[in-house]
């Protein structure tokens, strides 16, 4: 894989304070409600390959409005380039492992610096490669994850555990690798949600997608996460086509 060595340093920067994976900090709408005694929840937003956290403003705004501190990664690939002429899955999995280590460093530094936020168990939200990196972090650090929202990730297996609630919103123009998605029995056993949006395209699950698609994603997300301090983790029915 070309330039995978670029992942090795993974010295990330957050504005002003944190030093780990490059990310932008987006504060909750009601930041005054976040205290050490009642810390606000934290969400890590991981973009798809070739995109940045800033390409998911519709998700950031929703999460901020629900009381989350959002750490939006600037790049889920760490500067690595995927070789389209070689098998994709092992390349994505290697990138996901490196990015997961960077997310851990990001959270460690946040926990050391700001007690107004709950760094112990975070929400992971990721599109495509970002969802794969999120799933890898959940596999490596299950005790640090409360829930995972995947926007059509396809290469790294999603959690199968009662301790991590899973929502995967699926496009209709792609298919996940075998074993990535929990089967129906696993969904029932662990309360996982798999919701397919008919007509949705994988690459459109970001700010440049249609208003209708973004509205559908936000409605599914809100059902799953409301209320933010004690989410119900409810599954939405598939949106009407």
Automatic annotation (TrEMBL):
Pfam families: Abhydrolase_1 (PF00561)
Superkingdom of this protein's organism: Bacteria
Keywords for this protein: Hydrolase, Signal
GO molecular function: hydrolase activity
Domain AB hydrolase-1: 116-154
Residues of the signal peptide: 1-19
Protein name: Alpha/beta hydrolase
Lineage summary: Bacteria, Pseudomonadati, Pseudomonadota, Betaproteobacteria, Burkholderiales
């Amino acid at each position: 894989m070309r330039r995978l060595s670029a992942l090795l340093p993974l010295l990330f920067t957050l504005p002003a304070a944190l030093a780990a994976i490059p990310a932008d900090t987006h504060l909750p709408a009601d930041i005054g409600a976040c205290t050490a005694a009642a810390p606000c929840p934290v969400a890590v937003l991981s973009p798809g390959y070739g995109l940045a956290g800033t390409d998911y403003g519709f998700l950031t705004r929703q999460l901020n409005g629900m009381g989350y501190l959002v750490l939006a990664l600037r790049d889920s690939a760490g500067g690595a380039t995927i070789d389209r002429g070689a098998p994709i899955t092992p390349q994505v999995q290697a990138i996901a492992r490196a990015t997961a280590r960077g997310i851990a460093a990001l959270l460690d530094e946040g926990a050391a610096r700001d007690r107004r936020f709950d760094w112990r168990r975070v929400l992971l939200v990721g599109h495509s490669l970002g969802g794969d990196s999120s799933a890898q972090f959940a596999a490596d650090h299950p005790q640090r994850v409360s829930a995972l929202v995947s926007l059509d990730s396809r290469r790294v297996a999603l959690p199968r555990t009662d301790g991590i609630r899973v929502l995967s919103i699926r496009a209709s123009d792609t298919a996940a690798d075998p074993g990535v998605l929990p089967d129906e029995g696993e969904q029932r056993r662990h309360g996982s949600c798999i919701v397919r949006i008919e007509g949705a395209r994988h690459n459109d699950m970001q700010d440049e997608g249609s208003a209708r698609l973004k509205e559908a994603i936000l409605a599914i997300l809100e059902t799953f996460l409301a209320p933010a301090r004690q989410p119900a983790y409810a599954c939405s029915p598939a949106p009407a086509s």
